[in-house]
Amino acid sequence: MPTVSAYPNAVKLASDFASAANVVGNTTAYATHNGIKAVGQAIFAEYGFDLSAVPANALLDRIRFNVIAKANAAGRRTA
User: Fold this and answer.
1) Which of 2, 16, 51, 62 is the most buried (most CB within 10 A)?
2) Could you give the CA distance from residue 22 to residue 28 in angstroms, rounded to a whole number?
3) Helices and strands, number each (H, E), in the chain
4) pTM of the model
């Protein structure tokens, strides 16, 4: 079965990130958020994907996203 890889090609909404465009394309760059959020609040961005490489009438058996998040003492999320 062929595999089609699609990477973000557009930032649609990035109200919480200062550099959301860093992760457009096939990259290992990071999007950063330096603000303070209350415990339980989410940070988010919305990306667009070009899926034109998926053949017509294809059967998708899996969609996988990888998200890595980290915080440190200077940039932690606190109330």
Assistant:
1) 16
2) 9
3) 0, 2
4) 0.68
